[in-house]
Amino acid sequence: MKRTLAVILIAILSFSLLAGCGKSGDDKKIVVGATPTPHGEILEVAKEVLAEQGYELEINEFTEYAQLNPALDAGDLDANYFQHQPYLDDFNAKKNTNLVSIGGIHYEPLGLYPGKTSSIEEIQDGAQIAVPNDTTNEARALLLLQDAGLIKLDPDAGLEATKMDIIENPKNLEIVEIEAAQLARALEDVDMAVINGNYALQAGLNAATDALAKEEKDSLAATTYVNIVAVREEDKDNEKLKALVDALKSDKVKEFIEEKYKGAVVVMD
Q1: CA 43 to CA 78: how far, in whole Å?
Q2: How far apart are alpha carbons 142 and 224 in whole angstroms?
Q3: Ramachandran bin of 263, using left for φ above 0, alpha for ψ from -120 to 50, beta for the remaining angles
Q4: How far lies 66's CA from each of 94, 97, 105, 179, 181, in Å?
Q5: Confidence at residue 125, expressed as pLDDT on a 0 to 100 scale
Q6: If we measure between CA atoms, which residue out of 197, 219, 184, 167 comes closest to residue 38?
């Protein structure tokens, strides 16, 4: 009986030690969800910086960004890196979640790209312009169309503007709402499309060189739509996640962004 009890106690102690080792290892492993371009590519450079500090970065890439916040909220990720604050705020409000930003990293100018029509001056009456169909990015796209002189929005609509808030549309443009990941593919079917920076890059487009109009670094959009690292609220002071943000703000990552994207991705000061 005593021998059996001793064996049980040894097994319990061994399990406790193993569990403790596992927890310690987890403190050095960071699981981050991201869209492939540019976020996944930027994280690959941050991974090198973190490795020098003893951290292991696991990058899980998602092609549909609508899946990233649910995965973070469910605990499948330690953090995600793909979105701006208005998108996160909208998600939290709709899903009753408590995800928070722990740092702004970069800004991707939204661009208006030519499809069947090659310039703003050539836009005909009734032309179709595709925009993202999610709340925050649709408003952002409409604000860009307003800046380009194509429409005028109700000034009270702000960052929640939809096509219903267009109060002047002299060319009777048809605003076509499409899922953001599909916008680049839709270019051949519409006159123009407003495309998110990451999806434009995936399609070989650069807002700095290919867009007919784009958001500028000194614009309200640049500060409003800076891409952030998001975590669950209870993890906002986690040391390894602070290390992740520091790595993304490192000189090595900044140099990579400037050389790789040439203005399509802009480092925030």
Answers
A1: 14
A2: 15
A3: left
A4: 13, 14, 20, 10, 10
A5: 98
A6: 197
Q: 213 φ, ψ to 5°? A: -155, 150
Residue 148 Cα distances to 102, 142, 165, 214, angstroms: 33, 10, 17, 9
How, if at all, do strands 166-168 and 152-153 pair? antiparallel
**Cα–Cα distance measured from residue 43 to residue 67, given in angstroms and rounded to the nearest whole number:** 18
Question: 3-state class of 142 per DSSP?
Answer: helix
Which residue has 């006159």 as its token pair?
Answer: 191
Length of the chain: 269
Whether the Cβ atoms of residue 82 and residue 136 lie closer than 8 Å to each other: no
Q: Is 125 left (phi over 0), alpha (psi -120 to 50) or beta?
A: beta
- pLDDT tens over the chain, length 269 residues: 444 444 443 444 443 333 333 333 478 999 999 999 999 999 999 999 999 999 999 999 998 889 999 999 999 999 999 999 989 999 999 999 999 999 999 998 999 999 999 999 999 999 999 999 988 889 999 999 999 999 999 999 988 899 999 999 999 999 999 999 999 999 999 999 999 988 999 999 999 999 999 988 777 777 788 999 999 999 999 999 999 999 999 999 999 999 999 989 999 87
CA distances from 225 to 40, 50, 60, 101, 108 (A): 18, 26, 23, 12, 8
Helix runs in the chain, H state only: 2-26, 41-51, 68-73, 85-95, 135-147, 183-186, 197-202, 220-224, 239-248, 251-261
Across the strands, what pairs with 107?
Answer: 266
Tell me how far apart the alpha carbons of residues 4 and 48 are, in angstroms, rounded to a whole number: 49
